[in-house]
Specification:
This protein has helices at 32-35, 100-108, 120-128, 148-163, 170-183, 191-197, 223-232, 244-256, 260-282, 285-302, 309-318, 346-354, and strands at 2-8, 14-23, 38-47, 53-60, 65-71, 76-83, 131-138, 201-206, 214-218, 233-237, 322-327, 335-340, 363-369, 375-379. By secondary structure, it is of the alpha+beta class.
Length: 381
Amino acid sequence: MWMQKTLSRTGSIRGKRNKASISGGWSDTPPITYEHGGVVVDIAVLVDKLKPIGAKVRRIKEPKLHLVMSRGREQEMAVEISCQCLEDLKDYCQPHAPGALLKAAFICTQIIQYPSQIPLRDQLMAGFGGGFELHTWSSLPHGSGMGTSSILAGAVAAALISAAGKSCDTTSLIHVVLHLEQILTTGGGWQDQVGGLVPGIKIGRSKPQLPLRVDVERIPVTDEFVKTLNDHLLLVYTGKTRLARNLLQDVLRNWYARLPSIVHNTHALVRNAEECAQAFMKGDISWIGQCLNTYWQQKKCMAPGCEPLAVREMMTILQPHVHGQSLAGAGGGGFLYLLTRKPCQKETIERILRGSEGLGNFSVHEVEVDETGLSVCATGP
């Protein structure tokens, strides 16, 4: 029987939503988050009405781990890996290795003990009477800035935990993903899984303490405001990709050095996130746009060089047409969030960008708030 998860930043362990971080990112990143404290405003979103990330898992008779990873809207370009001994899991901490995230998830959820003197086959037979077949998919490009890896990690972990006969609430799952990304060595904070695992518009907070605890609060908004937000929010894929880990290393070196500009900017990130939450509660699109613009300036201060020239030109062209804009994630490429001045501007934005030279292979996508929660379901034989 398949256990399936999907989310919109996205888990049925069939479809998982995506997320848009509107303010506060970087303050959620270890060690900043437990030395300073972090606050992030996140929205769970559907991209072109789809939940683009998902995972499904089933138990199989053979004592092995069969991993299938697909990309693209039609789940083409599948890569299959068969892990039949512990040696096959040794690259779980190498982010670029095929299947590393999935392997790390088996270890992080303690389905597999690694390292261990007990062979993989014996662990699986003793604990589960067989192995696992795990499928994952994402229609978002690598390096999109949309938190794809964290959301996928959440979908995979939730699916594996269910398939193993265990249970895990959303708060625990947020922390599981944070741990998974540390052992995967990609680092990263908690904003992406908060954004993708918790529905709707919310604010996450963590105090400067260990053990780290992330508290998430839904921001109260009206149905009318959600419709308005949907009409004004767009994504533009810039055609540029990057691995957040590269920017992360520079930011953390500056944090460890306690550069005054970085420390002051971290204070400002948290203040802006609290202000942004107030703007949402007021239902003020213009104010939210101001917070989004401020957030982008703060990201550039935190990670100089995160604004490629082509993206800067694109943002300059779009500036008269938006209340606010920011690259998703750490910056450097991927998706650009737009909060447009007028509603329903997808075709207009496409026309404006097409009429500008040198912008490359961009695409414009509709976005809407996803208010459905994370679900795990059993399907098929």
